[in-house]
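Step 1: inspect the first sequence and its tokens.
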Amino acid sequence: MKFLTFSEDNQLLAQMITFLRSRGEVDAATSSDRDMPIEYGAGVVYALRGNAQYDSISAALKNLFESSGYDAVVIASTVLGREVAGHLSVGIGSDVAPELSSLEFKDGKAITKRWGYGGKTVIEETWNARVFTLLPGITDAEKNGSESTLKDIQLGDSRVEIISEEPKNLGGGNLESAKIIVSVGRGLGKKEGIEVAQKLADAVGGEIAGSRPVCLDYQWLSEDRQVGLSGKKVKPKVYIALGISGQIQHIAGMRGSKIVIAINKDKSAPIFEESDYGIVGDLYQVAPKLTEKLAA
């Protein structure tokens, strides 16, 4: 198999190169100059220069796909990545296999796994698709000792014209690559409670995150800190849930976590069904004690 992979986030691109290099030859394309992933096993890393919009990027990937004999294009499942995948699939006449947590090939067909029904189950499917999107955190990025050839590609014109830009209020962290996440839900009760969660996150060297109500409704945390079906999909080694009830929309975003620790005063909260360790109690009493022990 010969893969072409793309992301505008080079950390995610390094993960995908690492994941795919044991499955065949890999070349990569990126529209970012930051931390170019040239040490992870790709034969070539294409630097896409110019107006990097979904249509100009997909046109460049289509040209590479058709001229270089790739068997599949694998794209990181980001907002831009999903747009590129949809546009590219039309261009090359292929289905898209989306939001995958697993991707294998057998007898010329792709065998995939992805979350279904809001994260309630895992769907295993067989595809003839040539375009795939992988969830962030598919594997840990690992350098392999070789260095990729770096080639520039000038992007063509785009039908998208940027009139103006207004930056979002972002938290600045990278949840997809975080090893430990402390996540808060509406059970926090007040914005001032964020400080309690932040101290615990600092004590364990983790990132802070939140559920949809915390990030979008109350805006106690920035939008890029949201974990869930409509937010970030994360796979940390440890996920600590403070005051999170465990609705399926949130579970869909963190189900790949290796160890889940939940603190909730409601012993019937669904989050306990997803947890490896659970503490029934007031988070304002439990979390500071954990912080004290861990920071000692």
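Step 2: inspect the second sequence and its tokens, then contrast the two.
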Amino acid sequence: MVEKTLKQDEIDALFQAARSSMPEGVKGDVRARILPYNFSSAGQISNDQLRAISMLNDLFARNLTHNLAAWLRSRFQVNLVSAEQIPFNEFLLRIPEISYAASVRLEPLGAISVLQLDLALAPPVIDLLLGGEGRDGPLRELTDIEESILGSVVEIICRELTAAWQPVGLSFNFERRQMQTQVARIMSVTEKTLCLSFEIRMPHSSGLLNLAFPAVVANTILRRLTSDWGRGRRHAGETRAQMEAAARRIRFGGALQLPTVRLAASVLENLEPGTVLRLDLPADTLAEWRVGGQALGRAQAVRQGAHRAARMERPAEEEGL
């Protein structure tokens, strides 16, 4: 076999022939797809990532609403307002002059994030914890005692963040309060951060809870969330069917029992075979049918062939069980 080496003018002629044979419309489309790249847009949150972040933080907002409302014994509502990527210096500009800012360590990454809470929320929270009615007060710096009380609230926030962000394997550990001048040194002012904003509403006050994560944390959680979200969407139908099939094979302990009654110790002391115990219940009282400790309704004990059985009479919803 004889190899032929093309000369430069022959190579140029081949490229020229290829370009001339390309339709005009196709050549125009190729040029239209060539766009200048903007490096500042690198790492922007995609729609899938934003959806996954919103799901996790909606869960955090619901859990924090429930747990802090129970702890404070007052109405407490938390809602996710926004999730966005912004430079750290822009986040610093959003911090009011008088506010509560704290450093939070994220393990196992060992990174530091910033938590900022509007001080307008401090007076009602502190008032409730000290036995008051949760009235608001003037915007001012906290005393040492008040700062310690508010620190316990921040620890609860970190605990709920850890529970909500369990799918990405991060734990939030409250370190200490930081003054505004100290916050600016936690990260580079030009670093792109993931900023989450929550609105907190109380009966007599409202304010914002803001969280800023450094780029290393944002990239880690976004990568994990996106892969989990995509995998969940691709196999949602198959996974659900498998889970339902597995759940139907689970066995639960069940019991058909009468409501609890109180008996005198003397009655129990003199129990003998054949003794009839008076339970002080109406004769038509139906037994409760409980499965796994949960009341499913009222049922009647019956016989089915050689076995005992329970015939459902009324569901739990009608009985208020």
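Step 3: confirm your contrast with the notes below.
Residues 283-321 form one domain. The longest helix spans residues 47-72.
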